[in-house]
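Section 3.1: Structural characterization of target chains.
Under the original work plan, the team committed to producing a structural model for every single-chain target entering the pipeline before any wet-lab resources were allocated. The record below documents one such target. The sequence was received from the expression subgroup and is listed exactly as submitted; it comprises 134 residues.
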Amino acid sequence: MKNPLILLAILIAAPLSSLISVIIDYFSMTESLREEYYEYNHPFGDFAVVAIGSIPVYLIIGIPVTLIIDLLTKKIGVTTTYKVYLLKFFLYSLSSIGLASLLPSNEIEAYGFIALFVLTYFHVLFYLRLRYLK
């Protein structure tokens, strides 16, 4: 039951993190830039492209990273939910920094964008595991 939860977390996290990203983009634009940008582009288009485009990244990078983090957590021997959460949050944060450092852009927005997607996936997966594996 563990691996289907990973796939379910990907299917939930991709559109959720895309929606959060589009909302952040919308409110971070100035009024004039927002009017100019959305005159030709619909926010749903951005949402759909990012959501669909992020699924392969979650599958190719997210699943192996999740399995490695699960293995590390098991080897460390953390048992309480609070400590498991803190350890996994730290490890997923490190993985998002590592992934963002591979991007050609060194802007802080790239790190924030990657962290948004990685940590949304982490929280969805953590919730699903708490809900269905206990």
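The helical segments are 2-28, 31-40, 43-76, 81-101, 108-132.
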